[in-house]
């Protein structure tokens, strides 16, 4: 985990804060040397409830009540981010301040007047903003201030339906808030990752196991599908 944090800190553009959320309350008493070193250099290590993948954004948005202009960037804890990662997101935000921005996305497809199975979605190949662009968190995502406010307003409605996946919930909140997503480069980028048992397990359950499709069918209402349909037709 400390390697991910070091890679972010070594970027051309530094974030104003780096917060690591841990759901193991005893972990603060036995931090490895790499994280202790990073904390001495400014890393904030905070405890939170075990919210699965939602803990990388929800604890922050729920407490950032007075930060009305906050832009939030999330990063997975097992990826090595290149030096231009944050600067590319920052430059893209300057150009498109209202969009959710990412380096890797899927393109939502429809079938039989509904959303097609997740495994049939295509990889995004453009930099055009759309409600059909489905940002994936692995390569990092920037959320504009309006999205931060919408996530705070939505609260914990992801629980229990979407507890195991944040990407689907985040897209649905954006969709209903009129916020589009945009991949900042084409083709998509998948950065070097550190082997992670948790990632393999989540992919197995959510993607290959069909859990994503069950969650999508429960979260997305006919009005959501119509919004996506209208986007495709326009």
TrEMBL record:
Q: Which domain of life is it from?
A: Bacteria
Protein name stated in the entry: Glycosyltransferase
């Amino acid at each position: 985990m400390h390697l991910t944090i070091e890679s972010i800190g070594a970027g051309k553009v530094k974030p104003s804060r780096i917060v690591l959320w841990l759901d193991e309350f005893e972990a603060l008493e036995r931090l490895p040397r790499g994280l202790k070193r990073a904390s001495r250099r400014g890393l904030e290590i905070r405890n939170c409830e075990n919210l699965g993948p939602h803990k990388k954004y929800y604890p922050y948005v729920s407490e950032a009540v007075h930060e009305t202009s906050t832009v939030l960037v999330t990063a997975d804890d097992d990826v090595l981010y290149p030096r231009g990662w944050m600067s590319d997101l920052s430059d893209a935000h300057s150009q498109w301040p209202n969009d959710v921005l990412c380096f890797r996305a899927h393109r939502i497809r429809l079938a039989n007047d509904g959303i097609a199975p997740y495994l049939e979605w295509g990889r995004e190949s453009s930099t055009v903003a759309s409600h059909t662009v489905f940002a994936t968190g692995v390569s990092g995502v920037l959320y504009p201030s309006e999205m931060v406010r919408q996530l705070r307003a939505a609260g914990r409605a992801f629980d229990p339906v979407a507890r195991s996946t944040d990407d689907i919930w985040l897209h649905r909140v954006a969709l209903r808030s009129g916020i589009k997503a945009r991949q900042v480069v084409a083709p998509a980028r998948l950065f070097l990752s550190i082997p992670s048992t948790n990632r393999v397990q989540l992919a197995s359950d959510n993607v290959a196991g069909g859990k994503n499709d069950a969650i999508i069918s429960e979260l997305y209402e006919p009005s959501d599908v119509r919004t996506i349909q209208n986007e495709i037709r326009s």
